[in-house]
Structure formats: C-alpha cells, structure tokens
Amino acid sequence: MTKQIRKIGVMTSGGDAPGMNAAIRSVVRTCAFHNIECIGIYRGYEGMIEGDFKILDARSVNHIIHKGGTFLKSARSKEFRTKEGRQKAYLQLKSVGIDALVLIGGDGTFTGGMIFNQEFNFPVIGIPGTIDNDILGTNFTLGYDTALNTAVEAIDKIRDTASSHKRLFFVEVMGRDVGHIALNAGVGAGAEEILVPEEDLGLDRLLESLEKSRKTGKSSSIVVVAEGDKTGKNVFELADYVEENLEGYDVRVSVLGHMQRGGSPSCFDRVLASRMGVKAVESLMEGKSNFMVGTINNKLELYPIDKAVKGHSEIDHELLRVSDIMSI
Ligand code: F6P
Known about the structure:
The chain folds into 2 domains: 7-143 and 265-310, Rossmann fold (3-Layer(aba) Sandwich); 144-261, 3-Layer(aba) Sandwich (Rossmann fold), CATH 3.40.50.460. The strands form 2 sheets. It has a 7-stranded mixed beta sheet, sandwiched between helices. A 4-stranded parallel beta sheet has the order 7-8-6-9, sandwiched between helices. Helix content is 41%, strand content 18%. The protein has 11 helices and 11 strands. It has helices spanning 20-33, 44-50, 83-95, 107-120, 144-165, 180-188, 203-215, 235-245, 267-285, 305-308, 317-326; strands at residues 7-12, 37-41, 53-56, 100-105, 124-128, 168-173, 193-195, 221-226, 251-255, 291-296, 299-304. The radius of gyration is 22 Å and the shape is elongated. The structure holds 6-O-phosphono-beta-D-fructofuranose (F6P). 6-O-phosphono-beta-D-fructofuranose binds at residues 15, 106, 130-132, 174-176, 227, 261.
C-alpha cells in the first residue's frame, strides 16, 4: 500500500520563468483542495538546506497568477550538489514532516531531484519551468511561450529602427544550448536569417544570404542568433565579421538578455501551469514519484525524470526550411 501524503513541499529552482507563480498557486490550491498541507520552500535547494520554509494556504497565493518571476525566489545551489548538502536538506524536510516534493525548474533542478530521490527514496514530481523549452518529455515548458512573445515584441521594435536606417541587426536571444526561442521568434518576427546551435550553416552561407537579400531589394535585415549557436563567434564577432566581409552594411548588435525571463505570463503559460500543478499533486497522492509532468499533444503525461534530463528536446527542423522560404 502506498504511504498517504500529508505534507507537500513546493519550490522553484534554477533560472526563473514566467508562469512559475501560477504553478506554485496551482500546487498550493490543489493541496488545499485535497486537505494536504503545503509548505513553500524559499530559494530552491539553498532554502531547502537551510530550512527556509513557510506554510502556504489557498489565500497565500492570491493575485499571483499574472506575476512574472517567482515569489518563492530561486537559486542555483552548489551545496546541494554534494552528498552532505543533500543530507542536510533531507533532515530539514523530515524535521517539519514534509513527505513529498514538487520541484519547478529545468534540467538542473530535475537532476538534483532525481539524485535526492535515489539517495533518500523521497517522492518527487517535477514541473518543467524554463524559458528554454529544452526538456525532453514535454512539448512546452512553462515560460517558453511568454519568452517567445517578449522576444518577438522586442525584435519588432528593432525592425522599426533597422528599417528607418537601412541597417543590419544581429539580435541575440537566450535558449542556452538549444535554438527553440531563436527559431520560433525568428520566424515570428520575419528574420532574414536564424542561427541555431542545432544547425551550423557556416559563415559563407550567412554572407551569401545577406548579399542576396540586399540584391533583391531588402533595405534592412534582422539576423536572430541563439546564444548557444555554433558558428564559433559570439554575436559581436559575427557582426564585425559581416561588416568586414560585406561592403555597405551598417551593422548593429542587440542582446535581449534577461528581459526575456521577465514579465507577466501569457495566458497559455498560466493555463499550462494551472493544469500541471494539479497533475503534480494528484500524481504524488497516487503514489507516483520520480516523474515530470509533461504536455504532449495538449495532454498531460508523466515522463520519467531520469529520461527528461538525458538530453534536449529537438527543434522543428521543418521550421528552418519555412524560414528559408519566407526570407526569400
Ligand atoms: O535557463 C534559462 C536561462 O535564461 C538561459 O536561457 C540562459 O542561458 C541562462 O538561464 C542564464 O542564466 P543566468 O540567469 O544564471 O545568467
């Protein structure tokens, strides 16, 4: 018989993402609905090690569904990577009677949770929260949709100034080692070229394409560059390279940076967070552990955490072809 869950701890860890507050709210309210006590763990694994806990009830999460960031705060903990750190965290959880965890974060968060589960047989369920959308076992991570829209809005604004001055802009977007944000924001904002880590088209091809754009009458161009792209040059070096090798191009660089992590979550992220929080708590109640809640074809599915952290989700390669056609 599975042990009855009486107290669930919820935390956010790693890079914050829009929709994390909505997910916390959902976990807290689902716990309240099922008469389970919910404890907020502040500052991710750091707070778990230090016992930075607070009881959360349904009213503690009023008016946060629309807020960016995470009110529980987040951190990337070095100490939790050590056995001693995890032992301290375990003792802290036990001292207040927490018997299961909902972990909201990305692959670093899940790797920590998976090891913790193996060492202490502690029930954990993950909710994927990262703007990068790089987690296996889910079509969407929380925050990705919002970050995409933020990036597109920013690139639209850059387009206004680029076309007023006949300029070429290199715009760097986040995404760590994957190109989901670059590819989708690039297509959404009508970029002339998109450089993603998954496909290194080479610098010659970039020059050719920009030259072609100019010859066919384009007066301004946007190249979206994923921060993890594999050209071997950072975005500033790329801009210099193009300026040196293509005459008549007035080049500028814009790095969107952490603005992509902020802002009010989109409706899509709020709804997904609400659904995932319910699924996470109810899965723990059913005795499930060491899974991540994913969404596949708009259906929530449990995916083994150890598989989720094994690699990165694939970009849609067909979208690269679509981009080539659109930027003719
Ligand atoms: O994983 C989310 C993310 O924003 C990545 O896109 C980016 O590479 C990284 O975090 C930045 O991390 P930090 O906030 O620690 O600089």
